[in-house]
Amino acid sequence: MTSRTIVVGDIHGCYDELVALLQKVNFGANDRVVSVGDLITKGPKDREVLELFMTDGRFSAVIGNHDLALRRKWNGEKIKLKAAQKATHKELKPHKETYVAFLNKMPFTIDLDTHLVVHAGLRPNVELYSQTTEDMTLLRTLGKDRESHDGTPWYDVYEGDKVVLFGHWPAPEPRQGKKAIGLDTGCVYGYNLTAYIIETGEFVSVPAMRAYDES
Questions:
Q1: Could you tell me which of 152, 186, 153, 144 has the C-alpha nearest to residue 167?
Q2: For the chain: N or C, fewer Cβ within 10 A?
Q3: Using CA atoms, how far apart are residues 155 and 142, in angstroms rounded to an integer?
Q4: Regarding beta strands 115-118 and 163-166, do their DSSP bridges make them parallel or antiparallel, or are they unpaired?
Q5: If pLDDT is split at 50, 70 and 90, which confidence band does 1 have?
């Protein structure tokens, strides 16, 4: 049977929507799911999402900025968590040892041959080995402040060898550059959870059941 690679936008603990999305694409035994990161925080079912990715070999994910914040905290770094991250930290702390082992294994990129998955973005004209952690987990635009919404989006300029599939920057529809596709369509904010099927080039979305985060 033909296998498919289903790349999913930011999940943020929206487990029920993820299940609905997998049902919609008829997720099969030979298929695989790759997440663009931010598996957790802001949504209602962080533990269920983590358990799925930890126990089913068909699932993998790059690390997102929220996942990374918790990883750094649990590894002893003195970092200041944001409000949503603090809530997730409190929720998951009783099972910290199990989850930190998984978070520590999450890579910054996953190479899918013709495509490359990263959470936020890549600097144009910079080799992959020279990309910084901050760029890969936080990049939006190419000005002084990588997190700014104002300025030239990195994906408008990027023209690498592989098509980059990313998340982090929610939009009503998938963001598209010449060689990049953004899959965060704001599920946790009440919009949609979107997937891109590499083999067919199709987008599949399901609506959020509600807005879990109003920010």
A1: 186
A2: N
A3: 10
A4: parallel
A5: low
Distance CA 23, CA 84 (A): 29
Q: Token pair 């949609």 is at which residue?
A: 192
Reading the block at residue 111, the tokens are: 């190479």
What's 108's domain CATH number?
Answer: 3.60.21.10
At 61, phi and psi to the nearest 5? -155, 145
Sequence-distant contacts of 198-202: CB under 8 A, at least 24 apart: 198/4, 198/5, 198/6, 198/7, 198/112, 198/114, 198/115, 199/2, 199/4, 199/5, 200/4
**Do 36 and 168 contact (CB within 8 A), yes or no?**
yes
| Sign of the dihedral defined by the CA atoms of residues 85, 89, 90, 91, in that order | positive
The closest of 129, 115, 203, 213 to 166, measured between CA atoms, is 115
31: left (phi over 0), alpha (psi -120 to 50) or beta: beta
> Is 40 contained in some domain?
yes
Domain region containing 16: 5-120+163-207
**99 lies in some domain:** yes
* pLDDT recorded at residue 215: 79
Number of domains forming the structure of the chain: 1
Residue written as tokens 């002893």? 76
At 30-65, the pLDDT tens digits run 999 999 999 999 999 999 999 999 999 999 999 999
- Tokens found for residue 141: 């635009």
> Distance between terminal CA atoms of the chain?
43
Short-list 171, 69, 64, CA closest to 120: 64
